[in-house]
Specification:
This protein is about 80% helix and about 0% strand. It is mainly α. Among the domains are: about 100 residues, Serine Threonine Protein Phosphatase 5, Tetratricopeptide repeat (Alpha Horseshoe); about 80 residues, no CATH class. Helix 6 runs antiparallel to helix 7 and helix 11 packs parallel to helix 13. The longest helix is centred in the last third of the chain and has 59 residues. The radius of gyration is 45 Å and the shape is rod-shaped. The termini are far apart.
Length: about 325
């Protein structure tokens, strides 16, 4: 009997302990939720005044009741007094917990934010927020505005760096594409390739280098270009440049220059081909020189023979005159 009583007491104690544990866990979760809600409310209130908070609260109540139109109108009332991008985005953030019901209100917030945006940071913030809420037409409009406002290449490079720092890689790519359309000289193209390389956009950097190689047709200038693009470590493009330089050589000196450069870059097949073409050019030049010398000697010989014939004819004519004068009667 004592054993049964002890067992009953142990079970009762276990139930009490379990109940207290459950109460503690629930209390902890409630406090945690309350603290997070308080923090969120504090974060929102930084850019929202009391009147706006009142309309947002009404909108939230309507959204909970499934009254989407009423909630949207309440949020638009809160948005009416927003005069900065931060305020518009704060109102927009308040709609996040109600999903599709407040989609129109969310779109209205972002459109209002676009209308009051003044700086590049404002437009970047709008583009990020629109992408977060999957309002891609507003994202595109913000990106277009960012690109249009940047006029010079330096502005575009700065925009690309800023966009990449906030994970707007597509904006950075578009900025560099626009910058390339405004590039007008070799130095600008080289700077563009370096900037694209630094931003990790290998495709744009390589395109610029390929265009520089394709636009140059002088072997010496191509080798000068090689020194400038070498720090960008595009080995296949370096080889492409050397092959084109070899095809563009016009004399032995240029061929020797390509030969030496290819040897420094350990391009053995290009070295062998340059050596062969160089020797062939030397032999052809020697043949041309020999032919020219032969033609000159032949012309000299022909001229000398002609002079002898003319001299003989003149002597014969002189003798004929002298013979005629001896027979003259002297009148």
């Amino acid at each position: 009997m004592n054993t049964a009583m002890n067992t009953a007491i142990s079970k009762a104690i276990s139930k009490v302990i379990s109940a207290r544990t459950a109460i503690i866990v629930v209390s902890s979760l409630w406090l945690s939720h309350g603290s997070q809600s308080a923090f969120a409310k504090t974060a929102v209130n930084v850019n929202i005044d009391k009147d706006q908070q009142k309309w947002i609260s009404r909108g939230n109540s309507a959204a909970k009741s499934g009254k989407g139109d009423k909630a949207t109108e309440d949020y638009k009332q809160a948005l009416a007094s927003a005069d900065s991008v931060a305020s518009c985005l704060a109102v927009c953030d308040a709609t996040e917990h109600y999903g599709h019901v407040l989609l129109d209100a969310r779109r209205a917030c972002l459109i209002k934010a676009e209308s009051v945006a003044k700086t590049r940071d404002d437009l970047c913030a709008i583009a990020l927020k629109a992408r977060q809420f999957e309002l891609y037409e507003i994202t595109k409009a913000s990106i277009d505005a960012l690109i249009a406002r940047a006029q010079t290449n330096e502005d575009l490079y700065d925009l690309a760096r800023k966009a990449q720092s906030v994970s707007l890689n597509d904006v950075a790519h578009l900025a560099l594409e626009k910058a390339y359309t405004q590039t007008t000289s070799v130095s600008e193209a080289l700077n563009y390739a370096k900037q694209a390389k630094l931003l990790g956009m290998e495709d744009l950097s390589r395109k610029a280098i390929r265009d520089l190689i394709d636009d140059e047709s002088d072997a010496h200038e191509l080798l000068v270009l090689l020194k400038q693009i070498d720090p960008m470590q595009q080995q296949d493009l370096n080889r492409r440049l050397l092959k084109k330089a070899l095809d563009c050589v016009k004399n032995v000196d240029q061929c020797k220059e390509v030969f030496d450069t290819a040897r420094r870059y350990d391009q053995r097949d290009i070295v062998s081909l340059a050596s062969y073409r160089g020797r062939r050019m030397i032999l052809l030049q020697q043949y041309k020189d020999d032919q020219a010398k032969y033609q000159e000697q032949l012309q000299t010989w022909r001229s000398g023979k002609l002079d002898q014939q003319e001299q003989q004819a003149a002597n014969d004519m002189m003798k004929a005159r002298q013979g005629k004068q001896s027979n003259d009667p002297g009148f």
